[in-house]
Amino acid sequence: MNMQSTIPAIPLVVDLDHGRMVVGGADQGKAHILHCNYYNTYLQRTLWKDASSFIDAPPIIIGAAAEQSRTQLRALFGQLGLDSIDKRLRFAEQFYAWQGFGHIDLSGLTAQGGTVDSRVQHYAEGWVAQFGKADAPVGLMTQGWLAGLADAVFDLADGSLKPSQPLCSAVAGGKANIFKLHPSEGATYPIFNAKGIGSILPTRAIPSVANNVDADGVARAVLTLPLFGNPDVNDGLVNTFDVLISWHPHSYYDRISNECLNQAIDQYGEEGRNVMGPLLEEAGHRCAFRTFGGIFRSAEWAAVVEPMCKTREDWVHGMLAIINCAGWGKASCTSLTSDEATFVVQNDYESVGYMHLYGHAKAPPNYLLRGGFRGLINLVYNGDIASKPSLTEALYEKLHRRSDAFDVEVLTCLGTGDGLTTFRVFRKG
Fold first, then answer.
1. Helix pair 349-358, 250-268: axis angle to 10 deg
2. Are the C-beta atoms of residues 248 and 68 closer than 8 Å to each other?
3. Residue 428: burial class (beta carbons within 10 Å; 0-12, 13-18, 19+)
4. Residue 389 half-sphere exposure, CB side, CA atoms within 13 Å?
5. What is the arithmetic mean of pLDDT over 143-153?
6. Dihedral angle over CA of 44, 102, 74, 353, nearest 10
7. Which of 236, 268, 259 is nearest to 123 (CA)?
8. Do 88 and 73 contact (CB within 8 A), yes or no?
9. Which of 87, 242, 376, 412 has its CA 20 to 30 A from that of 292?
10. Left if phi > 0, otherwise alpha if psi is -120 to 50, otherwise beta: which for 119?
11. pLDDT at 4 over 70
12. Position 2 pLDDT exceeds 50
């Protein structure tokens, strides 16, 4: 018997009306979002390395990943009727790969711990692609994911096993990825109060700027692409749009970003926000350069979207059509010139996640989208992305440092109590 054929399929609901990709149902499910290796590794390095003088990010990253896997797997095991240890382990291997995280072999794992082998890792591969070799193991997310998985699979108390990574392929000399779980008398990372999917508002019709892009046609085409991983294909890595993509629950990003931000605010007051906020926005700006830039340069874009693009503005609308398949919320462009743009996002994931985890925010928590929209307009109007330039660090610096580079402001924010989140992107100077 093919063991793979006996593993239940991932229960995914594609909700394009609200810009959501939901796994596991409306109660204890999770809304997953597409990001690429460049954002994932840049955000991790920002929190772990760049902000290390005033926050301690690794326990937060590990704890947030444990929160996501523990909560989601417990719910999925019940929903899918997975009552045996073996069935749970096999499903967890598949689910990890489905999210684009890579390969894990859980055959050596028991309720007392064990060793987990991983031939390839999204974070290890992505780190090397962006930064070169690392000075320490980079699998912080997987450490937490495995710790939470063990709690769910073996019905353990939260945080029963301590994770570590003795070998990492991103470190010089490392040729594999090995993770270990050890019994612990208490959790060695924060145990966050995990929740289900969270509520959203009904969407409304938002008039968009006239354009030549068939957004519905783009969405239909995008959803036929290999967007999700398979342990039997490329060891669970997903190389689409000229980048490695992944599907974290968005509450993972909401948790790590805001816990680190809150830690900085606790120590330094609003000055902590003033320091951490731009770092988080820069991660979003880098995401736009590499993720959107990769999409613009990809064979998928050339085949599906580019033939619709009659004007430079169409490139912006084409990207929005893809963003609306990524689980970030429902985005529209309500005004657009070569000097200024306005974007409206309904149920943006940063606001939805913040409110679900913490309540209303004192300041807009939309750092990814701030940097993302700013980066998108920089690429289209300053970067001549239609000529498909190489996405080098030199080009990034050139665009970033231009005197007429674009800036962004949040005009309204769902997370602070408004019904919509609105961004104004404008030229500096």
1. 60
2. yes
3. exposed
4. 16
5. 98
6. 40
7. 236
8. yes
9. 412
10. alpha
11. no
12. no
